[in-house]
Amino acid sequence: MMRKFTNKRDIIRPGVTRFASAYLTLQSLSEKKEELRHMFSSNEWEECKFSDVVKGRSSHTLVTGSTFWAGVALCLKVFSPLVKVLRMVDADWKPSMGFVYGEIKKAKKEIIDALGGNKKAYEPIINIISKKMKGRLDSKLHLTAYLLNPYYHYKDPQLQHDPEVMDAVLEFFDTLFAGDLEMQKQVVTIDLPEYKKKMDRFGRELAVKACEVNDGDYDPATWWGTFGGATPHLTKIAIRIIYFTSSSSIHTKKRNRLDASKMNNLFYVQFNGNLMEKNKKRKEKNMEVLLANDSHTGQEWIVDCGDCDEDGFGIVGIEEEVFEEVDYESDGVHIIEECGDKE
């Protein structure tokens, strides 16, 4: 009956992670709201044997009411920013190290705004995100990449005065150039101030315009290669760390049983062997990276799970079991960028 009223479309939207599946399924459910309401108001439902049982009456009340749908819309609105971060981290076409910290920070703000600034409502969610980040996504490497990404630095001039960020940056260079005070002095006291104060090429109008928008064409490493000529040491470091990826794809139960050298070799061969083909397919088919039939790896860093750390939160790298032989139905559902208010 459901498939009849939804034009043979399923509600369940399998994804490569449980979090992605839950989000995509809620989105699919929201899009089929009117069809489902129509089904429960139809003669077919009245004649159905399930209409007189407890579960049937409960389902009818749920679908025809407004409270449930308001909750679905709120979930989509609140967790949409986190899904955007997950998609960005899992993408192969653009290194994400320079964006992870900044985008999670942005996602927190969007969640707070989505909940109308109600501290009682947003605080539990923000606390969970902060605990997930602690020791994983807020390292001195992440914060240094965050500062050296001009998209964030030029957008927020006060970023360079953030004590947490600057302490992390100083610790990073102290670790990178351990014992080499001359190089530390060159990078920290000469090169870095030029970038922070937008001196020389960094202050050109073209340099400012080139990092205004974080779209598919923006690459912070290319930006540094173009405008960082006056600070060669800092430019070399910036390009190296910004080109890092931060996906948890390689950290799964099976892969963690391999020794480090073999894992690295296997990952190198597989990644480089498939990268061009995967990018070609995405361009041709506009694939959604979180759908199970478009991906072969799973990430899990947002949803609670069975394998948890001592705080009860899922550990980065929990492997998701994906049955590749299943031909998942595709009804054109993609992750919505903006979730409007719905009943």
Describe this structure in words.
With 343 residues, the chain is an all-alpha fold. 56% of the residues lie in helices and 0% in strands. The protein has 17 helices and no strands. The longest helix is centred in the C-terminal third of the chain and has 26 residues, at 260-285. Residues 291-343 have low confidence and may be disordered.
Helix content: 55-70%
Shape: elongated
Major beta sheet summary = none
Low-confidence stretches: 291-343
The arrangement of helices and strands along the chain is: HHHHHHHHHHHHHHHHH
User: Which percent band covers the strand fraction?
Assistant: under 5%
Tally the beta strands: 0
Average pLDDT? 78
Oligomer state equals single chain
Q: What's the Cα radius of gyration?
A: 24 Å
Which structural class matches the secondary elements? Answer: mainly alpha
Number of helices: 17
Distance between the termini: 24 Å
Brief sketch in words of this structure:
The chain has helices at residues 2-5, 18-31, 33-40, 43-47, 54-64, 67-90, 100-114, 119-133, 140-147, 150-153, 163-176, 181-196, 205-210, 220-227, 232-242, 253-256, 260-285. 56% of the residues lie in helices and 0% in strands.
List keywords for this structure.
single chain; about 350 residues; mainly alpha; 17 helices; about 0% strand; disordered C terminus
Question: Could you outline the blueprint of secondary structure elements for this entry?
Answer:
Blueprint lengths: L1 H4 L12 H14 L1 H8 L2 H5 L6 H11 L2 H24 L9 H15 L4 H15 L6 H8 L2 H4 L9 H14 L4 H16 L8 H6 L9 H8 L4 H11 L10 H4 L3 H26 L58
Helix pairs in contact: 2-6, 6-7, 9-11, 14-15
